[in-house]
Design goal:
The protein contains four helices and ten strands, in the order βββββαβααβαβββ. It is an alpha+beta fold and 225 residues long. Helix 1 crosses helix 4 (180-195). The longest helix has 16 residues, at 69-84. The chain starts with a strand and ends in a 5-residue tail after the last strand.
């Protein structure tokens, strides 16, 4: 597949003036998670209205999850580690097209669409972009970031003391006002992901980026299909 690249200057606020990143539609460096990790479960939130916008998101044409091949190889190591402890992965999001991120920003800037307030109960919608809860460019779009949790092998729930995309300090990995069991569950996931080569995010316990991501300056925009 011939590589298709072009340079795109992000809108004001997303990058410093004059700084450009590469946008690509080339998906040859990616693979579906299911092709390597056959026991992972999926709840691809942006393929459905069950997300903070209350709407299905642009670029999600199928409930599938892709990662760069490097990130997927590392994720398979974490899956092996967690499987040995009696868990398997539940994926909420992985590679995210730039058009999806643009959809988020457009929603924030639309004063007539409140979305689903349960995801940001103590914030105003305008706070989500200003407070960096949502970014005009996302590590997910580089293809080596994944949002996930653990479930038991039989598919039953593991309590993490908070849900995906809850814009609140409750989502911070080190949040103190959760139970010892919830803290332990978060640590099980975090330890396995760090051991496999991922960096955690200090504001979202479910979010991990491959430390040595292969496309640090490239943002992809092919559909999830």
């Amino acid at each position: 597949m011939k590589k298709l690249l072009f340079t795109f200057m992000f809108v004001a606020g997303s990058l410093l003036p004059g700084l450009a990143d590469t946008i690509s539609y080339d998906k040859t460096g990616f693979a579906q998670i299911s092709t390597v990790i056959d026991d992972a479960a999926y709840d691809i939130r942006y393929y459905s209205p069950n997300n903070f916008t209350g709407n299905k998101i642009n670029g999600y044409k199928a409930p599938r999850a892709y990662l760069t091949k490097e990130a997927l190889a590392a994720l398979a190591k974490a899956a092996d580690d967690l499987r040995a402890q009696g868990y398997r992965l539940l994926i909420w999001d992985a590679y995210r097209p730039q058009k999806a991120v643009d959809n988020f920003v457009a929603w924030i800037n639309n004063p007539t669409d409140p979305g689903d307030k349960t995801f940001y109960p103590a914030l105003q919608k305008s706070d989500l972009l200003a407070g960096n809860y949502i970014m005009a460019k996302s590590g997910h779009t580089r293809g080596s970031t994944v949002d996930l949790t653990i479930i038991k092998k039989d598919g039953s729930f593991v309590d993490m003391g908070g849900t995906f995309d809850l814009f609140s300090e409750i989502s911070h990995p080190d949040y103190k006002k959760i139970t010892k069991k919830q803290k332990k569950n978060r640590k099980i996931l975090r330890d396995a992901m760090i051991k496999a080569g991922f960096n955690p995010l200090d504001s979202e316990w479910w979010h991990f980026t491959l430390k040595d991501e292969p496309y640090k300056d490239t943002y992809f925009n092919f559909d999830v299909e």
